[in-house]
Amino acid sequence: MNTRKQGAQKEAQVCACLLSRGVRICEQNFRCRQGEIDIIGYDGEYLVFFEVKYRSNGNKGTAAEAVGYAKQKRICRVADYYRMVHQCMEDTPIRFDVVAVDGDKVTWVKDAFDYLAWK
Q1: Percent above pLDDT 90 for the chain
Q2: Domain 3-109, CATH 3.40.1350.10 — does that match?
Q3: What is the chain written as a DSSP string?
Q4: Cα gap 119→13, rounded to integer Å
Q5: How far, in Å, CA of 48 to CA of 63, rounded?
Q6: CA-CA distance, 97 to 51, in Å (whole number)?
Q7: Tell me: the pLDDT tens digits for 98-108?
């Protein structure tokens, strides 16, 4: 199975997991010039930007470790664009979560990183 297809399967698995935990998913694979966000949804009052990472084994570290500083900045830029396009209120609380899939183990890391200004 190619990595793109496997990634899509893992994202579908993560979506099902998030839905079962009460997350209301608004969008998947939101793309713009700045980059992509895997899943966007609401967890309670929070607008959450989810990054999904998968590792079949630990040879290259854990899935959560793959979301480094540069990736975090890119996600924040895309989140800013998303909020502008969708006219989200400035007082809407936001959060950046990572859902790490290591083999068959799914770990949801809430508030995985803080907003990083990109200007």
Answers
A1: 69
A2: yes
A3: --HHHHHHHHHHHHHHHHHHTT-EEEEEEEEETTEEEEEEEEETTEEEEEEEEEESSTBTB-TGGG--HHHHHHHHHHHHHHHHHTT--TTS-EEEEEEEEETTEEEEETT-S------
A4: 35
A5: 19
A6: 6
A7: 999 988 889 99
* Residue located via tokens 């895309």: 78
Neighbouring residues of 72: CB distance < 8 A, sequence distance ≥ 6? 96, 113, 116
For the stretch 51-106, pLDDT in tens is: 999 887 767 777 888 899 999 999 999 999 999 999 998 899 999 999 999 888 89
Task: Write down the domain spans for the chain.
Answer: 3-109
Token output for 1: 């199975």
pLDDT of residue 57: 72
List C-alpha distances in Å: 80 to 2, 67, 117: 32, 18, 10
Q: What is the pLDDT of residue 35?
A: 95
Q: What is the model's pLDDT at position 84?
A: 94
